[in-house]
Specification:
This protein has 416 residues and is of the alpha/beta class. The chain is built from 14 helices and 7 strands. It has a 7-stranded mixed sheet.
Length: 416
């Protein structure tokens, strides 16, 4: 009977459906039990953590806002710890710098107990080791840059009744400086600046020179203050932070070199451990096989050691083409070595002029305080290179090696 088959098939399907519903209920029950177990385990784990932290395990954890507040508080504590560590690290760096400076001063015969809080090197940051009770961020104390000291002196001299020059760019660089400059030091700075200006302009007018390298604090204003011919290229070597600050201030004030004059900045450390920076000059277009004038100024404001002075002179000697010139101011070494002798050790034939004699050249009247300030300065030098530069030596070596490989050996020995 076909009806019997239909009834049996419908009964079978109902049985399968009932069994499937029972299996689904069992799975849902197991999933619920498993979820409850996970929730219980999570709560037990959280309570154990709270007991370990010393908190009340009965605190309501169902509200997520409480959890976010806890995370925020922990994050603030971590931030305070990081700020405290940064402050302690900065203080340690400052302490090391002060100890190093005191050793240098003792080597120079100065008083190591002099206040060292205002450093003369590039930007030094000092931060308190502990955050304030008000929870404010630590304040960073920026110390005056070395070049700003000389710029302030030149700007002060321009406001006198009979200035040797006026330097508007120096006044721009001196803005924001926290350094208290003695007015009696302005005249010495002005005499040195004017004397070097005259030497450089005279050399350029008499020689076919288009490369001028400025070595010092990184805030030299000669590219902007004096009239230069088309094609003159300035390469300024100094501390990176000083160069960057000078570029930003002058650009903001709208001060630029004359038309056709190029000014390239070359960040380089002038310390003995920094090594050679001739390669950095070559990368920005300096040619060691062409005549150049090297201007040294402001090195006394960098507090360099005798070894660092020698490193500066070595870099200058390696970069100067034969018969190139070097002018500027060099301090007397701590052991009493004359700057002329220091230059002679690097094959630079030079002569020196006392700043007191330069004052007489410009017919200036000095007060006793200004005369004392002038006596503390170094010597004005002007010299000429007597050897090949590093670039010239490399070209010569390459050329002679090529001749030796191409020419007859006996013939080469005869011509050499």
């Amino acid at each position: 009977d076909p009806n019997t088959d239909r009834e049996e098939s419908s009964g079978t399907s109902d049985t399968k459906r009932a069994v499937g519903e029972q299996d689904a209920q069992k799975r849902r029950r197991k999933d619920g039990e498993r979820c409850l177990r996970r929730t219980g385990h999570a709560r037990e784990r959280e309570e154990r953590q709270n007991r370990h932290r010393g908190e009340d395990p009965n605190t309501d954890r169902e509200e997520s806002s409480g959890t976010s507040d806890t995370k925020r508080a922990v994050g603030e504590q971590d931030a305070q710890k990081r700020r405290r560590k940064d402050g302690e690290r900065c203080l340690r760096r400052t302490g090391h710098a002060r100890e190093r400076e005191e050793r240098q001063n003792r080597h120079r015969g100065e008083d190591p107990n002099t206040d060292r809080e205002e450093s003369s090197w590039c930007v030094e940051e000092q931060a308190s080791a502990m955050p304030s009770q008000a929870g404010q961020e630590e304040q960073l104390k920026f110390v005056t840059l070395p070049g700003e000291i000389g710029a302030t002196r030149r700007c002060m001299h321009g406001s006198t009744s009979k200035p040797l020059f006026r330097d508007d760019a120096a006044c721009v660089l001196a803005e924001g400086s926290s350094e208290t400059v003695d007015p009696n030091t302005a005249l010495a700075e002005a005499v040195v600046t004017r004397f070097v200006d005259d030497l450089v302009t005279r050399a350029i007018s008499e020689q076919d020179i288009h490369q001028i390298v400025l070595v010092g604090t990184g805030m030299n204003t000669r590219p902007y203050r004096l009239p230069w011919g088309m094609g003159t290229m300035f390469f300024e070597v100094g501390p990176a932070e000083c160069l960057r600050t000078a570029e930003e201030k002058l650009k903001e004030a709208g001060i630029r070199p004359p038309k056709g004059v190029l000014h390239r900045r070359v960040p380089a450390g002038l310390q003995w451990a920094d090594g050679s920076w001739y390669g950095s000059l070559a990368k920005v277009g300096y040619r060691g096989d062409r005549p150049s004038i090297w201007v040294i100024s402001g090195l006394a404001d960098l507090n360099l050691t005798d070894e660092s002075y020698e490193a500066v002179l070595e870099n200058i000697s390696n970069g100067m083409m034969l018969d190139s010139f070097v002018v500027g101011e060099l301090p007397v070494a701590s052991d009493g070595t004359n700057p002329v002798d220091s230059l002679a050790s690097w094959d630079i034939l030079a002569m020196s002029t006392r700043i007191e004699d330069a004052v007489a050249v410009y017919d200036l009247d000095c007060s006793p305080e200004e005369s004392a300030s002038i006596a503390q300065r170094g010597s004005l030098i002007r010299g000429k290179q007597t050897k090949l530069s590093r670039h010239q030596r490399r070209v010569y070596t390459t050329y002679t090696n090529q001749l030796e490989s191409d020419a007859d050996e006996d013939y080469f020995d005869n011509i050499v």
